[in-house]
């Protein structure tokens, strides 16, 4: 399997001349919180994450060019690389996502992953709270309480049952990964929920930063 078979082709891309506030709105609207910065030919010239955007909003920086990461610092893969290379790169560099380029250097997709992929087989007996702690460690600038609030909101949206953040925290501290997979209806649904929680907590941080 090649990278182009697993990459997200519906990614958002921005220009160095775009305004930071507009990018924050686009991220919130699409629920995609990393984006390649491209030139007029669609070639990679930078990379922006939600944390770069929050920093820009906080510091009053106006343009994407003021906050983007330079190309030499960006980990990327080619669309024809083996899919496992994308997984290994995201895991090794502890990245949520990386851009995918074609042979001419144009951005043609984004691969999104969690750094727990390589240890998935060992997770079934681990407490769910450990997964959330690892996630919290990667979401720099997000507190544990904010993560639990987002988790409680997503749980209410998905189940219709109200649950307090403290109740959710107690639940994940007493449940194993294997039990959580069974309770949520499978591995895919568990990770869809986990991604939704991460996206919500970031969206809430961005919204607060704009105020």
TrEMBL record:
It comes from the Archaea. SUPFAM superfamilies: CBS-domain pair. Signal peptide: none annotated. It holds the Pfam family CBS. Residues 7-63, 68-128 form the CBS domain. The keyword Transcription regulation does not apply. Keywords: CBS domain. PROSITE patterns: CBS. InterPro entries: CBS_dom, CBS_dom_sf, Diverse_CBS-Domain, UCP006591_CBS. PANTHER family: CBS DOMAIN-CONTAINING PROTEIN, CBS DOMAIN-CONTAINING PROTEIN CBSX3, MITOCHONDRIAL. This is CBS domain-containing protein.
